[in-house]
Structures are given as structure tokens and as C-alpha cells.
Amino acid sequence: MKRHRTAATALLIAALLAGCATEHPPMSEADWNSMVSREYPGKSAKQVVDAAEQLWRLSGGKRFMIEHSESGLTATRHWQNYEPMVLITGVDDWTLDVTEADGTTRAKVSIRTSQRHTTASLLGMTPATHTGPRVGGEVQGTSIYDLFWARMDYLLGVRSDWMSCGDSDSRVSADVTWGQNDALCNGLNLPDEPPKPAK
Fold first, then answer.
1. For residue 161, with 0-12 CB atoms within 10 Å meaning exposed, 13-18 middle and 19 or more buried, which class applies?
2. For the whole model, what pTM was predicted?
3. pLDDT digits (tens, 9 = 90+) for 162-186
4. Hey, which of 2, 11, 22, 37 has its CA 20 to 30 A from 62?
């Protein structure tokens, strides 16, 4: 019975993903590159890297493990969600690459997420658990990137207002963007705090 429930859950998830894929066809390479990258004239690579680190610290504090590299930053967050009889564990992996040339810094971000489910059940009077395989990949949709760059723009002085998770959710509801923004807006394990105003 437990195996059948697990298989049914996997089929349901696959069906939901297929439905999303039908509603939002694959993006062109040009559209994808436009979504994941930005240019910041007059900003140094260090300014852009510092802004990204501040963004992740605001979104999750010490929950993000941030490492500097020659090309930019990586940020990793391990998380857990609990549902009745189910433990969901996941990992979000961010990579930000920056290049600086002719007074302009070009930044490109990618976000991959993976998760696995552990379900608990009773076989007679004996508790039992089943852990499924880890599944995931590059986050699809425009919402998370729209939110990331809006916050980067604010922190770099390009934009005057901070995009909250509620603002981001509203843009999804209005079909301006689509997809999940959980990597920055999971209310179960991430705060939604704007930067403190400069004194």
C-alpha cells in the first residue's frame, strides 16, 4: 500500500509539472538569457557581488552558506518542510557569475533546487518510513528571477522600491510572471524582511 501511495504521488507531481509545461511553453535562448542576466553600467563587480550577498542574507540570514569564487558567488541553503506524516528535505543552490569590462558589470544567476520526501506509516503496530529519490533541477519559470533582479536593482540603487514576496506573488497571480519563488519566499522557513533604511 505504501509503495502504491508513493507511486501515485510521483505520478501526480509529474502530471502537475506537465500541466505547467503545457501552459508555459519553453523559452527561447534569447528570452532565457535576458531573464537570468543583467548589466550594471557604472557598477563594479565587487558592488554587484556585495549586493547579492546582502540579498541572500536578508532572505535567509545564516541559512545561506555563501562562498566567494573568482567568478562571483555561490549560495546554498538546506531546508526542511513538515507535512502530516511527510518530511520534505531540500537544497537550493545559487550561482552568480560576474564579469567587469569597460565600466559595466554583467551578472548571470542560476538557481537549482532539489528535494526528497520521507513518509511515515504504520505496518501493523510497527512504524516504518520510506525515503524517495532526490528530484529536481534548474528552477523553471520567471518569478524567482524577476524577484531576484528586482531586489538586486534596489540594492544597487537602480530601482527605488523593494519587491516583497507579496508583490512577487501578485505578479504571478496577474500572469506577469510564472513559476515558483520559494527559493526566496518560502514562508515556512524564510523571513521576508526588507533592508533597513539607511540612517
1. exposed
2. 0.78
3. 999 999 999 999 999 999 898 998 7
4. 37
